[in-house]
Amino acid sequence: MKNTLKFIFISLVLLPLVSNAQQTGVYPPGTQPNEHNINGADYPRIGEDGKTYFRIYAPDAKKVEISFRGEMTKEADGFWTLVSKEPEVVGFHYYQVIIDGVGTADPNGKPFFGMGKWVSGIEIPEKGVDYYKAKNVPHGLVSESWYYSDIRNEWRHCFVYTPAGYDKDSGKKYPVLYLQHGMGENETSWANQGKMNFIMDNLIAEGKAVPMVVVMDNGNIEVFKPEPGETPDQARMKFGADFSSILINEIIPHVESNFRVLTDRENRAMAGLSWGGLQTFNTTLNNIDKFAYIGGFSGAGQIPLDKLDTVYGGVFKDSKAFNDKVHVFFIGIGSEEHPERAKGLSDGLKAAGINNVYYESPGTAHEFLTWRRCLNEFAPMIFKK
Amino acid sequence: MKNTLKFIFISLVLLPLVSNAQQTGVYPPGTQPNEHNINGADYPRIGEDGKTYFRIYAPDAKKVEISFRGEMTKEADGFWTLVSKEPEVVGFHYYQVIIDGVGTADPNGKPFFGMGKWVSGIEIPEKGVDYYKAKNVPHGLVSESWYYSDIRNEWRHCFVYTPAGYDKDSGKKYPVLYLQHGMGENETSWANQGKMNFIMDNLIAEGKAVPMVVVMDNGNIEVFKPEPGETPDQARMKFGADFSSILINEIIPHVESNFRVLTDRENRAMAGLSWGGLQTFNTTLNNIDKFAYIGGFSGAGQIPLDKLDTVYGGVFKDSKAFNDKVHVFFIGIGSEEHPERAKGLSDGLKAAGINNVYYESPGTAHEFLTWRRCLNEFAPMIFKK
């Protein structure tokens, strides 16, 4: 019996540790483990200058790569190593370990859903910046809430942030922000990659944002598979196309029945990043009676400025009516991801009399630090009318 | 600019799908995808008879294996395949894809924390059994709740199940079950692998269990690393040794300050699986003034029957006093994991006058189906005194 226990113990704990053993005891000076490493994993590491250090045990592999970073070097001890040539940009970056051509999540890291599957993430610390860090302030909860979708004929779940104190007073109701991920991500991404809970906790604790509920659901309504004879672009246009319907007919009613939220348009906002920004534009601008605040973070939606009178059912035709209804129309973008597109949209809308806020995140690309910053800018603006 | 978007789209979505393309359109008859596959992934699959079918795209790998199941066969199209020789036992089983010796989570599946890292899971359906399925009943929430640990000097989080209706009535308080995972697992395992939320939802909806709060935290308090000169067994005994202290001094106060729970011993239970069962025995039996219900599910704790008068501070010495205080002492085990150990413990305690409930899960081993069943048996017994 003792042997059985020992076998279980060796199988479950020792073998993985041995096969992924990374502890060398000697680390490049000034480096720290990636904050997303699992307990006991010392690599990847990040230097004070933002350089990244990867180390993977794969004595039998022919080639090991780190995605976006290149081929690793095989060492005599069976480990493969890679040090980035340049410091990496601050913030959160996806990566995969590619073992003889197969992209996998790093066995030593916490997985993140991005790039259409579960991959790994490395966090380059941003010195002196703590708005997305856990602080000694009251913390809200991120809860998983299940519902049955008649549209999709399946059980679905959303993640719901409720602010600190939510369950102390059952008489109080809160405004709601519906917050969407990008293509290739899912309903877990805003809390995991985006640290939206700490951003909201900190904003609310400092009195910058109104206490609100934030709902994150899965916008990947159709799996992306081009039909025979269809181009990827044609297929892409169908991907996520049904999200407005499921949001309005199922997610919002589910949230309003199961959480203490205010249900009028003045207390309902929607924002999304990248593809979720397009979903936000499509949902809110076609349903302006239901949303008073709109945010596109690196939004993939391009509103044709030469057709402003007719697009989205003519919602922009009467700019005064639009401005009266939409209290914040936020257009955010990273400076390193061709911001001229978003800037042009913002300027064009302003020229047509449509109020909007343009925000450009300095030094960041189409990545989560841009979107953390966008949320940190957008959330304080909403529900203050 | 359109090209930029297209590049982002191709990078984030198309490439992963192409490189992991699994869609063949022709599947082994009668098979269904594993319920934990990500959207669009068709493998692994499970046959009606419980046989499993694995398929991995790795044209450049020399050898691909599925852990516990063996080596895959390379096909002409760059895919590797494996069909289990025998049907697998019903329930949840861990697996890894081993690419040229490197154990990885299946890129096509949802990751589960087990075996000391993030790995994959396959679910063999159990016909006619639905106590752990999502049903059309009111659903509770599983929430992530953060706190700062002075003992560990770090931010930690627990997952907290609150039953349906919890936030409708802020006057009502609930009893609490502290529920621990096994070695190599973590605070996410009971909800992900164990489906504890659906088990509790269904038991509560049927009136079998009292509505209760369930708290799941990380019991891996020390990373398992043998010190120089230390045997693995010696190191193992230190692993998790501090859990009682963090549970009693930090987790329980955090939960009692932040959730509407009852705070007397009559309304506090603890249970755990495997290593978590040992932590449960060590915590509750040394602190019987704080817990009235105890559950060990395949518990790794072996109480020496010949020293009953002295172990755990002599808690068993006066059996009547013990029986008056501990209303349920549950000892569960799977029939395929040497149940004689647990049965002997139960019988020996009974012979010494210590009331306890013995439950043996038929046909299951040291795996999560044993523990789902244990929870389904244990939860209805508690908080009914």
- Mean pLDDT score of chain A, rounded? 90
CATH class of the largest domain in chain A: Alpha Beta
Q: In which order are the strands of the major sheet of chain A placed?
A: 13-14-16-15-17-18-19-20
What percentage of the residues of chain A does DSSP assign to strands (E)? 15-25%
Provide the gyration radius of chain A in Å: 23 Å
Tell me the CATH architecture of the largest domain in chain A: 3-Layer(aba) Sandwich
User: What structural category characterises the helix and strand content of chain A?
Assistant: alpha+beta
Number of structurally distinct domains of chain A: 2
CATH topology of the largest domain in chain A, which one?
Answer: Rossmann fold
Largest sheet of chain A: 8 strands, mixed
Give a brief rundown of this model.
Two copies of one chain form a homodimer. The first copy, chain A, is an alpha+beta fold and 385 residues long.
How would you describe this structure to a colleague?
The structure is a homodimer of 385-residue chains. With 385 residues, chain A is an alpha+beta fold. Chain A has an eight-stranded mixed sheet with strand order 13-14-16-15-17-18-19-20, with helices on both faces. A five-stranded antiparallel sheet of chain A has the order 1-2-3-7-6, with no helix packed on it. In chain A, strands 5-4-9-10 form a four-stranded antiparallel sheet, with no helix packed on it. The model of chain A is unreliable at 1-24 (pLDDT under 50). Helices cover 26% and strands 25% of the residues of chain A. Chain A starts with a helix and ends in a 7-residue tail after the last helix. Chain A has helices spanning 2-19, 189-192, 196-205, 232-238, 243-258, 275-285, 311-314, 319-325, 340-351, 368-378; strands spanning 32-33, 45-46, 52-57, 64-66, 70-71, 73-74, 79-83, 91-95, 97-99, 102-104, 111-114, 117-124, 141-149, 154-162, 176-180, 213-216, 268-273, 293-297, 328-334, 357-361. Chain A folds into two domains: 29-124, Immunoglobulin-like, CATH 2.60.40; 141-381, Alpha/Beta hydrolase fold, catalytic domain (Rossmann fold, 3-Layer(aba) Sandwich), CATH 3.40.50. Chain A contains ten helices and 20 strands. In chain A, helix 5 (243-258) packs across helix 6.
